[in-house]
Amino acid sequence: VELIYKNSVLINAITRGDGQIGDVITQNIVKMKNFIKNPKDFTGSVR
């Protein structure tokens, strides 16, 4: 899973699939119990 943030806002959550094709799971990831929705002062991606 890769989480993509811009200015501390989640832009996209995607599965990495085969490295080129994956699924968009943004709506599912925000429902997870320990998901950090808005990390302070962060732009980038987390895998």
TrEMBL record:
Pfam families: DNA_ligase_aden (PF01653). Coiled coil: none annotated. Residues 1-34 form the NAD-dependent DNA ligase adenylation domain. SUPFAM superfamilies: DNA ligase/mRNA capping enzyme, catalytic domain. GO terms for molecular function: DNA ligase (NAD+) activity. It comes from the Bacteria. This is NAD-dependent DNA ligase adenylation domain-containing protein. It comes from Candidatus Shapirobacteria bacterium CG10_big_fil_rev_8_21_14_0_10_36_6.
